Amino acid sequence: MTDTTAQSGASVFRLAYRSSTTMERENRPAELEEIFELSRRKNTDLGLSGALLVWDDTFVQVLEGDETTVRDLYATIVADPRHEDVVLIEAGTVDGRVFGHWSMAHVSDDEGADLPAARGDEAPDVPHAVPRLQDERQEMVLDLMREYANPDITPL
């Protein structure tokens, strides 16, 4: 975990989106490993933080940082052929980062994830890489990410 900002309580721009991945299942673990490695390096350099939830063929990602930088990255993601059906969930200024300790947290129920995609009792046998943080704002955002991972739910 890397703290991407010393000003974790300062206002920050946050953007969240949902997409479907076009990555083949058999290649997905290796591709995701590359994505996380590159994203963490670049996001640290750009002062971005965030989380990517991976659930079946659905991605839900939250990006936090400078508005122009976040919007530019989102435009790159929308144009990336590994994504389709990209839907903007939220974009706006918020009071502080909720993923300030991660340049890009991996949220899934795969072993090695930074944060679990399922909540406690929903997946009692899933190993988690780190203990759950007691951050109420982060839990609220993670709950929204989990909810929007369901393709039957339409963002407001």
What does this structure look like?
By secondary structure, the protein is α+β, with helices and mostly antiparallel strands. 29% of the residues lie in helices and 27% in strands. The chain is built from 3 helices and 5 strands; from the N terminus they run βαββαββα. It has a 5-stranded mixed sheet with strand order 4-1-3-2-5, with helices on both faces. A hairpin with a 2-residue loop joins strand 2 (49-55) and strand 3 (58-65). The longest helix has 19 residues, at 28-46. The radius of gyration is 14 Å and the shape is globular.
Provide a compact summary of the structure:
The protein has 156 residues and is α+β, with helices and mostly antiparallel strands.
Number of helices: 3
Give the mean pLDDT.
79
* Topology as a string of helices (H) and strands (E): EHEEHEEH
How many β strands by DSSP? 5
Q: Approximately what portion of the residues adopt beta-strand conformation? A: 25-35%
Overall shape: it is globular
* Unreliable parts: 1-7, 119-132
Percentage of helical residues? 25-40%
Class from secondary-structure proportions: alpha+beta
Record the SSE blueprint.
Layout: E1 11-21, H1 28-46, E2 49-55, E3 58-65, H2 67-79, E4 83-95, E5 105-107, H3 136-148
Parallel strand pairs: 2-5
Antiparallel strand pairs: 1-3, 1-4, 2-3
Features:
single chain, 3 helices, 29% helix, disordered N terminus
